[in-house]
Amino acid sequence: MAKVVVSTGYGKELKIASFALYVFMETRLKIANFSERAITLVISTDAEGLRRNSTLIASILRRTQRLVWVRCYTRGFEQASFEIRNLRVDFVKADEEVTGRYPGHVPLAVFDRMRVMRDETGWDRCLVLDHDMVCLSDLGDYFDEDFEDNLLMARLFGPGNTLGMQMKGRGGLPESLAHAEDHPYFFMGPMLNLELMRKEKTWEAFLAAHEALQQEEQLALTTATGGRTKGASRKWNQVPQWDNSRDADDNEVCGITLAGIIHWTGGGKPWHLNSKVWRPELWEAERTNWEVLRAGEWDKPVMWELSGSPASELQHWFKRGWKLALLREDSPPPPLPEDSGLSEESILSREEEWNTIQRKAWDRLMDHPDVTLWDDAFRVEVLGNPVVLIVAGVTQLRELLRSHPQAAAAPYVVSRRDNSEAAAQELAALGYTRQWCRPKETAGALAEGVDYREGPWTGEMPEECELLGWKPAPVESRRKPALRPAPAMA
């Protein structure tokens, strides 16, 4: 038998007796370069769903330092595998026929991810994921949990929700599978105990169950694993349709915490135009594409906003994938015309309504792990060095540079309230050699305005404007959002 020579990466070579053993050793050597258990994931997709998976993967990478290894089965198209930083993606084209009946919004490609039980001989476990998820915590915590001799680990639907119950509306279980009636049903997708599955030939049992049921793959997996599913924390598969409810006054009662995995199951998705699903901005804030992943530029840029912008403006930055450190200041309601004719009671009611709207906007913004309140306890390492600084004026900027020297790395600065010629000169002295101005009512965007040193602006600053400065910065400190749109104009 021909031998394969494998480089270990440490100046040594191993002679492996078979290609299968080579694959196993290559996998082990790669994982050994990281001190903690790798995050090994399996997904499958058709061409239409591919781009959504990049957002899911980016959300995982942004919250872990571990190796993230993805096996992605593609149906009807091919992609080139790649490896960069702590990410490796292996694309595997799947051409085998898929049978069974699936919900209308679910493509046949979902079956292909089950092939990992047969194909991946080097992993001891992997997590099955859907493209309509985002992860807001370090997924490594989930991977460190013990299977306790179970074949699966997943969030369970709960008492009474069994395979038998799920099959009642599908014609019932075949007599040959009646023994599986009480197997607990789980939320998709589960963590697979691949090491034990290989020993117990779960792939073969899965194929037999799928042939007998002719339904979606989740039902066959429930059958083939013999009810051996360890219940996982709800944190790792939070579903708005199941975890949120309504009180007696029809107000939403949220049962979801912004940690772990958020999963928008069903036909409505957060990327749909004018989506009505629960908090689509959480998905929007993670959105990316495969070009960004291949370039290794998935880190979110950081903004320090210390001028006291309203929550509605900061939402523009948040939704476009920025980490925020901010001062919270409530703004007054819009002024009323002198002849409004409103009674004192109506004016008070209007102010209360305005304050309620602001409070809700702040609550929705501040509960996210990528948004931090700027206070005495603020630590730069929580979010990282800023790309953008927004300050009230140059005096505040000077104080910030003294208290937090990391602020000097920011290539962009915005002076919201001090637009004097003296402020412009001081910005230039601090290294912000390129300067623009823009109207103050332009909220949420950092786009070039008009260079005040040229054309009609020469020699003077307009009265109602913000002053923007830019300076070159080392590449490693810029952390600009690669291939991402700038925050949109309000």
Characterise the protein shown here.
- With 490 residues, the protein is an alpha/beta fold.
- It contains 17 helices and 21 strands.
- The protein has helices at 19-32, 50-61, 116-119, 140-143, 163-168, 194-200, 202-213, 217-224, 240-243, 281-284, 290-295, 311-319, 344-366, 380-383, 394-403, 421-429, 475-478, and strands at 4-7, 13-16, 39-46, 68-75, 82-84, 87-93, 126-128, 133-135, 152-154, 191-192, 229-231, 245-246, 252-253, 261-263, 302-305, 323-326, 371-373, 388-391, 412-415, 434-439, 465-470.
- It has an eight-stranded mixed β-sheet with strand order 5-6-4-3-7-10-9-11. The protein has a seven-stranded mixed β-sheet with strand order 17-16-15-18-19-21-20, sandwiched between helices. Strands 1-2 form a two-stranded antiparallel sheet.
- The longest helix has 23 residues, at 344-366.
- The protein starts with a strand and ends in a 12-residue tail after the last helix.
- Residues 1-16 and 475-490 have low confidence and may be disordered.
